[in-house]
Amino acid sequence: MFDCLYVMLLFVLLVGAFGAEEDTALCEILGSPEFPLLSKEGDITIGGVFSIHSQISSPPLTFTDAPEPLKCSRINFREFRFAQTMMFAIEEINNSSSLLPNISIGYKIFDGCGSNLPSTRAVMGLINGPERTLEKTCSSHLSVHAIISHFATCACLSNKKEYPSFFRTIPSDYHQSRALAKLVKHFGWTWVGAVRSDNDYGNNGMATFITAASQEGVCIEYSEAISRTDPSEQVTRVVRVIQSGSARVLVAFLAQGEMEILLEEALKQNLTGLQWVGSESWITAGHLATKGYSRILTGSLGFTIRKSKITGLREFLLQVNPSQDPYNNLLREFWEATFGCSLQSSPHGQTQCSGSERLQDIKNPFTDVSELRISNNVYKAVYAVAYAMHNMLKCGQSGEAKLSYLQFIMLYTQYFPHEHISVFHVSHSDSAECSRCQLEYWSNEDHSQCVPKVIEFLSYGETMGVLLTAFSLFGASLTLVVSCVFFWFRHTPLVKASNFELSFLLLFSLTLCFLCSLTFIGRPSEWSCMLRHTAFGITFALCMSCILAKTIAVVIAFKAKRPANTVPQCSAPFQRTSVLSCTLLQVLVCLLWLTLAPPFPYKNTAHATERIILECDLGSPIGFWAVLGYIGLLAVLCFILAFLARKLPDNFNEAKFITFSMLIFCAVWVTFIPAYVSSPGKFTVAVEIFAILASSFGLLFCIFAPKCYILLLKPEKNTKKHMMGRN
């Protein structure tokens, strides 16, 4: 329907421009001029046409007498919300100090009633205003500077030669129709029926679908058309065709008005058992599922318009009240239809409205803002016009002559992301131009120029970076303190039993583990990206190798049948060899990773449109997970051996503490994997640092805290007899 609206507008313009060139008489409108249902004065006026009513009277056309005025009835709450959304956006802009300052925007909202005749009158009202006598061209000065016409999805409007002033912010129905054909093919439905609205929207959309379906190997059993102005017999016939057909899949390329008419007749004829595939016009209309049609439409498929949230819209909608404009018939009609009452005394016993009823207590398509799809598009379209006006006026152009290039903007408002607005320019020919910003830039608030995007990475200057750095340095310092304690008590039985050499090597590796987390903080560079993952992998492999060697030493010490004092000397070469070989294997994996596909700094622009996330690309995910997997393998081996040796006879059985430390270590890194995968931007790095620090602190406290406790606070237990469990 709104596709036809734009074609009508263009026709009127052409007739006005060329049809009365030789006529010097003034042009006079026959009949009464069309007035907007909602209006507000402003320096700039934006027009809008919405199907605020869904039914229209059909006066007899005798061509001898003037036809009776068209009467629209049955208010459409959903479309009325669209109109109020336009008013809300204009109200926001008028209250803005940065967008169009000192310039007010007004509006003129007409009712198209979803039909050609009232839509034509709405077009005339938008172009000419309320004047009865016009200039000789049958077109006075335009009453609006831009027109917002939602749902104008017809592919025919993409022809810029025929419709140069039509701007589209979403792909046309050409793309939706082809996508529907692929959707049908995807589910293996090769025998389908088709029904469409008998207008440009339905006819063009269905024609494209049928062409695309035939290319996909899908056959069409029948293709029927209906219009809301058709006699009931036509709709009944179409439903009978669908009922008698053998196709169990029905593709309905229908406007919402025709869809409701079709469903009414489908209920009468008990039409069930069909798989419905729908166009965007009705597929998300929630009220269709609550009006008794659910048993017909269950399982319907289709492509939807992106939904969004509009801050403050619900509060604005709930303030709508007849008291805002006591003389506005539309507000009174809306109030009476919403609450089922009458604002005037009714002789038929209808409930009297007080005017103080609460919209907060009502749930209908007007108050429901949970699925803001088309409303969001109307909202974005108003802002697009405002930004265009703002930039034009900012360039120093003023006056009606300079406004000409925006006077007939028709915006289709179904998907308008911020970055697609980019930057508006006025061209060396007074035409509107929009240039997309480069990948590392985006438009400023008023869309007058491209500005660099914010570059995001985990830096030392932010709070999170400072905290992580502090914990890292604290852990490294604490490990050095423990090393000093162990060195001071190196000749005592406890330190000797703990294997002095391995303990110091383990403390050294833990110090490196704490410090390697610092390589993850700061602006990523080539060397830091390569260092952070390899340093992490090698230091933790060294750490796990030391713990594994200590665990094996404990098991050998208690399982060997030789004298106890000979076991450490015999196992020492084995311990050194095992630590060295296990660590060298990780070094080899890291060298292969750095040689074949090393990590490198990467600018991630896909995650967020307003900023660039500077991060380290792994280069080879296989290399990263191989390094992490090898550390996990060593940890599992340590845990198994320590668990088996946890009950060996010793007052100070180190295997118990190793078992507990491995439980913490494994728990940290198991929870790390889903957190690492799901964390966005710099938080991915923060999660990895947290896992490094948490596991390092866990190893330090579980293995060395009990020993330091005895060394410093319980020296009487630091004897060989106590260690061996001899009283």
TrEMBL record:
Subcellular location: Cell membrane
Pfam families from the UniProt entry: 7tm_3, ANF_receptor
Signal sequence, start to end: 1-19
InterPro entries listed in its UniProt record: ANF_lig-bd_rcpt (IPR001828), GPCR_3 (IPR000337), GPCR_3_9-Cys_sf (IPR038550), GPCR_3_C (IPR017978), GPCR_3_Ca_sens_rcpt-rel (IPR000068), GPCR_3_CS (IPR017979), Peripla_BP_I (IPR028082)
Keywords of the record: Cell membrane, G-protein coupled receptor, Glycoprotein, Membrane, Receptor, Signal, Transducer, Transmembrane, Transmembrane helix
Domain G-protein coupled receptors family 3 profile: 464-727
GO cellular component: plasma membrane
Sequence intervals crossing the membrane: 464-489, 501-522, 534-558, 579-602, 622-645, 657-677, 689-713
SUPFAM superfamilies xref list: Periplasmic binding protein-like I (SSF53822)
Gene Ontology MF terms in the entry: G protein-coupled receptor activity
Principal location: membrane
Membrane topology: Multi-pass membrane protein
Name of the featured protein: Olfactory receptor C family, j1
Encoding gene per record: LOC116050851
